[in-house]
Amino acid sequence: MHNTRMKSRSNPNEMPARHTVPLADALARPLQDLRISLLDQCNFRCPYCMPEAKFHSEYEFLKRQQRLTYDEIIKVAAAASSLGVSKIRLTGGEPLLDKNICELIERIVTLPGVEDLAMTTNGMLLKSFADRLVAAGLHRVTVSLDSIDKDIFRNMSGGRGDLDQVLEGLKAAGDAGLGPIKINVVVQKGVNDHTILELLEHFRGTGTIVRLIEFMDVGNRNGWQMNQVVPSRELLEQIQKRWPLRAVGKNYPGEVARRYEYVDGAGEIGFISSVTEPFCGDCSRARLSADGMLYTCLFANQGTDLRESLRKGADDDEMQGILSSIWLQRADRYSELRHPDLAEHHVLKKVEMYRIGG
Ligand code: SF4
User: Fold this and answer.
1) This model's pTM is above 0.70
2) CA-298 nearest atom, ligand 1
């Protein structure tokens, strides 16, 4: 049992004592990853995340004062890293809409124990940011790119995405050293599944790693139906017929993707199969929304308001205590317990993906 008793510290600027072993939840899963959503706004309107009809020009997004300040984000990240978090991922909405993001990156990379700082972006603004992100200390990026077919890509981004601009962003990120770059592809039956081989062909031999993600019932408004899911094993069989693949091990415990490499040496791909092959058993991820709610599962229907404690003056020890008590009680395993019928009717009011960045 970890000693979460907070030691009083002579120097208040000193970081909270770092746990030598990551704090484990009620299912013995270590707290290793923190995903931080910087804002709820996005320059895309992907139908499975932020449909235009709902998120129209009059939609009221979080106001500046409702969002955590960088000082508040750092306080949460510092407490989390003291409890064992070594991987931090910046998300949104679209994180590059936050023009000062490099300032935050410079501060996060100095936190003790943060070994991996990544960002998930739709890539539209990546070209103009790539060099500055590297200079600020960002280690790597993941780009959401659902198709290499211009029209399908445009449709899946709600008519807002420009494929050429995203591909230029990818090139700039690669040239700047933000690799290995990963591409996240949400595969939807009858929407983009027929363009997956074309996309894989495009990235074979480039060093870019494509992750094929089963369409998930995230949030409450993407109209998810089980019959829209392309099981990863079916996709794997289809790809194997074109290019032989062999399975390779995980890079680290808790890694969500099942990794494969092309036998002919053309690189790596991965499958994230939350629906047909759930991986809750070693899920080590916590998620912080832009307005300071901490969620312990992508499909959570409730979170903990950290902003209130922060704005009431919670110090590092108190924040460490709050995070500890949340994680110690954590027992989420939604994907293992998912009931497709209930999921299709969105019975559970789950947090929206655009608020926690997937
Ligand atoms: S469903 Fe929740 S607990 Fe399971 S892997 Fe996803 S985020 Fe983790």
Assistant:
1) yes
2) 7
| pLDDT of amino acid 16 | 58
Per-residue model confidence (pLDDT) at position 124: 98
Report, as ranges of residue numbers, the positions in the chain whose pLDDT lies below 70. Answer: 1-19
Residues for the chain: how many in total?
Answer: 358
Ligand 1 binding pocket mutation candidate from 25, 216, 288, 297 (most atoms within 8 A of CB):
297
Measured between alpha carbons, how far is 216 from 242 in angstroms, rounded to an integer? 26
Residue 261 Rama label (left phi>0; alpha psi -120 to 50; beta)? beta
- CATH, domain 26-356, list 3.20.20.70, 3.40.50.300, 3.40.440.10, 2.60.120.560: 3.20.20.70
Under a CB-based contact definition with an 8 Å cutoff, are residues 151 and 194 in contact? no
* Per-residue pLDDT tens digits for 300-341: 999 999 999 999 999 999 999 999 999 999 999 999 999 888
Q: Where are the domains of the chain?
A: 26-356
What is the atom index within ligand 1 of the atom nearest the CA of 338? Answer: 1
356 ligand 1 Cβ < 6 A:
no
CB contact at 8 A, 141 and 121: yes
Q: Strands 293-295 and 285-288, how do they pair?
A: antiparallel
Cα-to-centroid distance, 249 and ligand 1 (Å): 20
